[in-house]
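Data availability (excerpt). All sequences and predicted token strings are deposited with the supplementary files. A representative entry, 7tm 6 domain containing protein, is shown inline so that the format can be inspected without opening the archive.
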Amino acid sequence: MVKQLMITLNSDLFQPKTAKQIILVKPSLEFCNITYKTLTFLGASAVFFWMLFPILDDSYKDYRLPFPAWYPYNTKTAPFYEIAYVYQVLGSYFTAFTNVSIDALIASLNMYVGTQIDILCDDLRNLHDPDEEGISKKLIACIKHHKGILSFAGNSNEFVKWIYFLQF
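Structure token line:
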């Protein structure tokens, strides 16, 4: 489904047609980039502090792991303690960055719906043409674009609904 969404976004129907429309889209792209960087920083910070907690409260002396867990070996002895510790830290980083990537993808899909609506509004504002047939062609293109946006938004919502459900 993600592949189909990306194919739709790369189609000619969804591309900006003028320099003004490209400028219209840039702030949304920059906002998505800032959102991704912020989520990455927050996720990395959370895992970093989880990793440091046993060290900061001196519970590492009692072989306390960042997260309580059962292992089929004694984690109170070296090198099993260190292996379990590194395993938990790496697993936490993997989980955090997976969640960040999924959330950034969902935010990007929603941003693309918004920018497509902005592009459609710009096309509608610039419908004027001295030739009546030219206006009809532009209006038909706008209607197709609108239907494409609605279809893309529906497919995006279909894709993310289970992700949202599982995250909650």
